[in-house]
Amino acid sequence: MNRTEKNILPPDLFSRNEVIAYLTGKLAGREGLRVLDVGGYMGRLELFLPEGTAFTILDQLPRPEGETAAYIQADAQKIPFSDKSFDVVIASDMLEHVDKPFRAPIIREMLRVSKNHVIIGVPCHSDLLEKAESAVMDQYKILTGRDHPFLSEHGTYGLPEESKIEEILRKEGVNYALVKEGNLMNWYIQQLYAVVQYREDLADKKYEFFRFFNDNLGELGNTRAPTYRSIFVIAKSGPIPQQEIIQELQQRNMWKPARFMEALQKAFNDLRLVIGEKEGDAERLAHARAELEKLQIEFEEEKVSHSRTHQLLRDSEGRAREQNERLEKARETLGTYREAVQEARTFLQEKEKTIVFLKNILEEKDEKISVLEKWSEETRGEMQLMKVEAERREKFILLLNEKIEEGNREVDKLKKHIHRGEEAMAERDTQLRETGSRADTLETELEKHRASLLEIYGSRAWKVIMAYSRVKTVFWTRPLKLIKKGYEIFVHLGPAVFWRRLIGKIARSAKRGGVEGDWAGGMEPYNKYIENERMAWSSRGKIAKEIREFEYKPVISIVMPVYNVEERWLRKAIESVRGQWYGRWELCICDDASTDSHIKPVLGEYAVKDSRVKVVYRDKNGGIVKATNAALKQAQGAYVGFLDNDDELAPQALYEVINALQEAKYDLVYSDEDKLDMEGKLEAEGIRCEPFFKPDWSPDLLLSHNYICHFAVYRRKILNELGGLREGFDGSQDYDLLLRFTEKAGRIKHIAKILYHWRKIPGSAAARTEAKPYAFDAAKKALADAVRRRGIKADITDGQWKGSYRIKRKIDGEPLVSIIIPFKDKIEVLKPCLDSILTKTTWKNYEILLVNNRSELLKTAEYLEELSARDEAGAQNDTRPRIHILSYDKQFNFAEINNFAAERAAGQYLILLNNDTEVITPDWIENMLEHAQRPEVGAVGAKLLFPGNKIQHAGVLIGIGGIANHAFLKQEAFENGYFGQANVIKNYSAVTGACMMVSKNLYEKMGGLDNENLGVAFNDVDFCLRLREKNYLVVYTPYAQLYHHESMTRGYEVEIREVKYMQQKHGSLIKRGDPYYNQNLSRERFDFSLRTTDAVKKD
C-alpha cells in the first residue's frame, strides 16, 4: 500500500495515525526524524509521517508479507537500542494487548530510547467504552462462531486506566498532556460495519464506506466526546503545548450532524443490500419446495399406473431412485435456505439491538442537555439576584448623595470661618511688607557679589582649571584599572558606547565629586522603580480598554485563610483584592475559629458589601492547611491565587496575570514581590522595601529554596487533582504544594513585576527568617517526598544559609572523568594546579590530559619529563591516575585545543579546566558529576574564587556589560549574594569554560566548542546557549570550589570579530535579557543591583 491509498484503511486505524502524525510534527517539528513504532505490526503509521522520516517498527510478531519499513522482531520490555536513539517513540496499539505488570516496564523502555518525546495511544477503561466493545464482540461471535481476534485480548488483560498510566508517568518525573480522539459512536458504527463486511465479503462497498469516513473525519467529529482512545503526549524535559494542541485539533474536527447521519445512512444502505439478498434466497426456497411437492405427486401416480408390469416396475423403480435423489437434493437445499433465513432473522435482531444502543447514547446526550437547561434556569435566578443587588446599591448611592449634601453645608460654614481668618492675615501682610523693604536692601548687595562671582566662573582661566580637575579626578585615582575597563567597554560595546560612558563619568564626577559617588546607596533606586510603576498607573483608561478587549477572561479565585489578625491588616488585605483593576475575581475566605472579637463582624461586613467575597467559618481551629483547603473548596475560578491575611496585592496584580494568560493558558504564573513595614502606607517613601526580582522558571533553584512563593496563581484543575495543600508540612505547605504542582504543570510563566507585598510584622516570616523554625524541617520533608516521587536517589541537607537546602544526589557507578588542561609554559601556574588535583581530589577514577600548545621553555620540557616518569611509576604501582601529555602544535585556539583533547579522552565525562586554577573542595568532581549524570542537564559549572577570596565566577549572565559577564563578580566569597543566589544550586544560561563538566557523548553530539568562529572568547557561552536551545539545563553548584588566577597565562584577548559573531548569533537573547536574571536588575553591574538610569527604557 502506498500513501495515495491510505484512505481505504479502516477508519479507526486511519484516525489514530492521522492524530499521532500531527502530534509528532507538532512536538519535534523538523525533517529527518528518527521514529520508533513499538507494537506497530500492520499499523501503517509510516504512510502518515513525512517522507524522509527514518521509521522503524518493533513488534514480537514476525515481519508481515509486504511490509517495507525497517522492522525489528523483539520484546518491548527489552528494546534493543541504546539510550536516546530516537527523536520520537510511539505505541498506538500496545498497552491494551499486554498484561498489567508489563505496562510500566514498557513505558520506561520507551522513555529510555527516546531523546525527549514519547506518544502512547490506548483505549482506557470506562463503562460506556467496554459496553460498546462487548456489543461488537457479541456480534462477531454470532456471525463467525469465533471470538474477536483483537478485542478479546482487551477482556483478557483488562483495559488500562488513565489514572494508572498517569501515576507511572509521574513516578518517571516527565511532563505529559492528554489528548482524546476517535468519537465512540463513530467507532461503534465502523466496527459493526467491519464485522458484517467480513462475514459477507463486501469488498467494494467496504472501501467505498471507509473512504467516505476517512475523507470526512473532521466533520464526523473525530475528537468529540465520548471518545474511544486516549493519547498521552510525553516530554522527558521541557513543556508540552497542550492547550495549543487541543485547540488546533478542535479546529480540524468541527462536527456536523448532517455528515454523521450521511455516514450512518451509508452503513444501513449496505446492510439492507445484504438483507435483500437473503430475502431473495428465501423466495427461491419457497419455489423449490413447490417443485418438490409436485415431484412427489408425479412419483405416486407413476408408481400406481405401472404396477402391473415388472419391466415397467423396474423402470419405475429406476425413475423412483432418480426422483429420490432429486428429493434429497431438494431437502438439502431446503435446509440450507432455512439456515440462511434464520441468519437473516438473527442479523435483523442484532441490527435492532444496535439501534437500541445508539438510542441509549442519544438519550444520555438528551440528559446532558436537560442538565444544561437546568443550569441555565439557575443562572437566570442568579441574574435576578444580581439585579436585586444592583437596586440595593442604587439606594446606597442615593444615601451617599444625601451625605454629600450635608458635607457641602459644612463646607459653607468653613468658608465663612476662613474669611474671618483672611482678614486677620491682611493685618499680618502689612507688617511683612515693612520687613520686606529691609530685605530688599540686603538682596541688592547680595546680587552685586553674585555678579562678581559669575564673572570669575565664566572666565576661560577658571574653565581650564575645572576641566583639568575633573579629568584628574576620574583618571588619576586608579588609572590602570580605568584604562583596562575602558578597553573592555570599547571592545565589547563599541566606540559609541565607550565615548558616551566616558563623558557620563566625567559629568557625574563633576556633579557628585568623583567616580565613587556614581552609585546612590540605600533605597533610592527602588524608590525610583516605585515612581516609574505609578507613572504607568496613569494610563488606567487604556488598561481598562485592554481588559474589555481580552479574549480570555477567566475568574481568579483568591484564597485567604484568616486567624486572629489585626483588624487594620485584615481590612487592607481585603481592600487590596477589591481594588484590583481586573474585576472578574472572587475572594474565598475561611476563618479558622478566630477568638478575636472583630474578625466575624469585619468578614460579615465585606460579605454583605461585595457578593464576590465568600466566607466560611470553622467551628474548631485546625491550622493553616485545613483553613486554606476549606477556603479552596469554595473556589469556582479557573485559576487560584493565595493571599495571607496580613499582606496586600498590588492593584494591577490580577490584570498582569490575565494579560500573561492571553499569550498561553499557563498552568502556573508567578511574580516578583517586596515587603511592607508596620504602617503599610504605599504612598510613604521608604515603606516598600526588600524587593525580590526573581529569575524565570528554574527547577534547580526551586529545589534549593522556595524562590517562587508570592504571588503565584495556579490552574485550579491541577490543584484539585493534587487535593490542595497537605497536612504535616505546616510552615512550608506552600513549598510542598509548589514542588508537587510543578511536577504536573506543563507551562510556567514569570511576570517580572512586583505584584505582592509581604507585611513585616514581628513574628512573621516576612520580618525574620527564624520566625518559624519548624518550617525548615517541614521544607526538608517536602523535598524528601519530592525526590522520592521523582525517583531521585539523594540526601536532603541544609544549605549554606538558613532557609536554603541541598539535594545531594547519589552518583551512578564510578565513571571515568577526563580532565582537559591546555597550557603553554608557565610551570609556576600549572604545577600548583596539578598538585592540587593530585593531592586533594577524593574521586579516584579520573585521568588528566595536558595539552601542550607550543611551549618554548626548557624548564617546561623538564617538568613534563618528570611528570611522565612519575606517572609511569605510579601506573605500575596503581597509586595515582594516568596523566597523558598531548601536543597541539598549532596557533592558539582554545576551542580547537579542547576539541582536540576531547576526541582522545577515554572518560565518559569531560572537565574543561584552565591551567591557572587550584582545587579548594576535595569532592569537587563528585559535586559536579552528580548533576552531569542527569539526562536533562547539559553542562555543570563550579564556583571560582580569586586568590583574595572574592568571587570570580558564580554563573554567567547574558547581556550584562556587553555580551556576557560573571554573576557576583568580586563579591566576597562568604557573602550569599542577592537573596542567597551565590550560594545555592541553580540554573543559568551559561557557565564558564574555565571549569565546566559535560558528558563526552553530549559534547560530541553538540560538535564541541565552536573553533571556527569563537577560537578564544565566548566559546563556552556559545556552547551553553546551544545546549539551552536543545532544552538541556545548565547547572551552577557552589559546592565545587576552585581558585582561578584569571588570565595569568594568556592575558586579556578579545577579538572584535568574536563580539560581532555573538551579537549576530545570539543577539535576540542579549537584547531580550537573560531568563535566569531579571529585566529590572542592572545590565551594567554584576551584583544584582537595581537598574537606575536605564530602568524605564525598553531594551
Summed over residues and divided by their number, the pLDDT gives a mean of 80
CATH third-tier fold name of the largest domain = Spore Coat Polysaccharide Biosynthesis Protein SpsA, Chain A
Global structural class:
alpha/beta
Number of domains: 5
Shape: flat
Beta strand count: 30
Report on the biggest sheet.
10 strands, mixed
- Write the CATH homologous superfamily of the largest domain: Spore Coat Polysaccharide Biosynthesis Protein SpsA, Chain A
Fraction in beta strands: 15-25%
Tell me the helix content: 40-55%
Q: Give the termini separation.
A: 56 Å
Could you explain how this protein is built, in words?
It is flat, with a radius of gyration of 41 Å. The chain is built from 31 helices and 30 strands. It has five domains: 192 residues, Rossmann fold; 188 residues, no CATH class; 44 residues, no CATH class; 235 residues, Spore Coat Polysaccharide Biosynthesis Protein SpsA, Chain A (Alpha-Beta Complex), CATH 3.90.550; 262 residues, Spore Coat Polysaccharide Biosynthesis Protein SpsA, Chain A (Alpha-Beta Complex). It is an alpha/beta fold and 1099 residues long. The protein is 50% helix and 16% strand. The strands form five sheets. Strands 19, 20, 21, 22, 23, 24, 25, 28, 29 and 30 form a ten-stranded mixed beta sheet that branches. Strands 8, 9, 10, 11, 12, 13, 14, 15 and 16 form a nine-stranded mixed beta sheet that branches.
